Amino acid sequence: MIKQGAYPPEPWCLRETHLDLELLAQSESLFALSNGHLGLRGNLDEGEPHSLPGTYLNSVHERHPLPYAEAGYGYPDYGETVVDAPNGKLIRLLVDDEPFDVRYGELSEHRRVLDLRRGVLDRAVRWQSPSGVEIRVRSTRLVSLTQRAIAAIRYEVEPVSDRVAVVVQSELVANETLPPPASDPRAAAALSAPFEALDVQTTAAGLSFVHETRLSKLRVASGIDHEVDGPSDMSCAVDAAEDLGRFTVTCRLDPGRTLQLTKYLAYGWSGQRSLPAVRDQVAAALAAARQSGWDGLLAEQRELLDRFWEGADVRLEGDEEIQQAVRFALFQLLQASARAERRPIPAKGLTGTGYDGHCFWDTESFVLPVLTYCAPQAAADALRWRADTLPVATEHARALGFSGAAFPWRTITGRECSAYWPAGTAAFHVNADIADAVVRLSNAHPDPDFDRRVGLPLLVGTARLWRCLGHMDRDGEFRIDGVTGPDEYSAVADNNVYTNLMAQQNLLAAADAAAADLQTATELGVSDAEVESWREAASAMYVPRDRALGVHQQAENFTRHARLDFGVLPPDPYPLLLHMPYVDLYRKQVVKQADLVLAMHLRGDAFTAEEKRRNFDYYEELTVRDSSLSACTQAVLAAEVGHLDLALDYAAEAALMDLRDLESNTGNGLHMAALAGTWIALVAGFGGFRDHHGELSFAPRLPAGLGGLAFTLRWRGARLHVDIDPSRAAYTLREADGELDVRHHGEKLRLENGRTVLAPLPEIVPQPRPGQPPGRAPTLREDRTAEAAPATDGSADPNQ
Questions:
Q1: How far apart are CA 219 and CA 57, in angstroms?
Q2: Residues marked as catalytic
Q3: What domains appear along the chain, each with residue ranges and CATH number?
């Protein structure tokens, strides 16, 4: 686990005050920059040492066969794994013939700062070579949020006391050597040398490559160009081969003089366009970047981020660590999605190769709700990608013997990539999760064109699957048998409550959308009889409940299973999936991640307050949180049922998942859903925010550890600002064309543009704190905050 002092809590930046090589893998993920199209891990400029060299292009992947000991009908034939694109962020430095390497000589200063307002990674170094020559190195790195194909680096070298000979080598390298494969199934498959070189071009100050993946046949173009400011007698040269290109600057520098290199990187790819087309795309992107210049790129980045924070910022009083964490989370979510443009948002974003770079249901159920209210265009683009994959999902459903569309459990291109069907193919709830994201976005930001082209086709395709997958039993109830819900320790069960309730919502939403757009529905082949069958199935949906215990069953008969005997497990047995066979987990009352509890969040309209309380307490004792998706949902429901201190503990766990590396796998990439969960835990948990049927409601309540919470939601062209303190909530509507009705603890409030409405907070009666499985109680928040170091002034200057 990363100790708190490694990254002191600051409101607008993530600061590394010294270089700890034992945390190199984690820092590479935490300091990653991306824009949804292009991602650069936070490797040191000189490239070494490194844990995982990482340059990623969204959806650039290679195929690999999926071996089966015993194959079955409908199993996917091959998998897809993200590959390392040509690395253009390398800048090597030689000082009097000695390479600058942090492992040698004396490193008297090394600071890095990820600036959340400027959108850059700053680095400041003071280093003495083994022969005693001392230099300063400063660099600033950005991946442009406005120019999709572009990243840029400014790199400066300055001697401290002696005249030195300096050589700077700026490189572009393909097919880099990767570390050996990990045994953890959550890591990526290892693919070596995935690219074949097709073209190399050089210019006076740069070069470009075109490569092609060997099996997936994707053409990838990459290029670098440079501007240099240094002594008049410096020399520059370019050389390039198939997988290595280099721009070299050589000069002598006196103390106080600086060599400044500005490096522009550009990337593009296609599975269809010709070699000249992708090569010219990169050349054009580099020309546009040079036209903007370094200062122009910085200004564009700051302007975009200013607009983003205006409608997305969350302000917290009383917990500096969570304050830092929620802004870090929002920044990373924007980076993962801003320019994805009809490509998926992977579970790790573009920060690492964990989970092979695949997209899961996490995107629709965790990431898109945040983007819907903070960056709606990015949410819309992610759903457009899902709509683009409808033909593949329809083909997959047909192969399984179903109507409609069966979206994949894990994928890059839309094809199922999970070789383990009980947790993959059987997890049909991904269909309903996609439908939920469609409904949420359409309610928050109505767009008839989006509904016609994207929303309705997705709702119809997913609804058709449910009507075919389920059936009416002899008692007139609609059953969905043999499915896997969010809890992957309870696979292939009958009538999973989460799945059934989300499918019910899906069916009704499809029926309503088809009725609202008869022309498009007719084009999709929807008949009146089909719509009526959707409504019939929804009204008859079976939701199992154990009346003797007074709780809902996560799935039918779940509460009749034996409870897991934690006493027979080895020390430190978590995650259980690495210490127990699935066949044993599937037979026990043990829950990997919030399942029924998630249903109570997303379909809270289907439960009474008393049912939520009893359900939460029952499943709290069974949930081991072997998934980073769980803590935020448990925080939301803990807050709703009155366990405010427990909710704060869970909110902190979600918030610090990566900043503290709580699951010991941040080195493989950041957990995008857990990052989104930070916002969810605060806004839906302590803000009590819900959006059921297009009606906004709030039930704010603050734990003793927080003195205030403020957040902004984008809603139908307006911004709704909510400011909560322990006694009241203030609602302010801005940029609105008309009035907006919301509910505050059930009371209807009418909001007018520019006016603030105050509403008191009711007293919350504390509830007895429920227990958790052995060793899985969240760390008490007061214990964490007692360890916290005092914050600095929040400046993002790496030299401070």
A1: 11
A2: 488
A3: 31-293 (2.70.98.40)
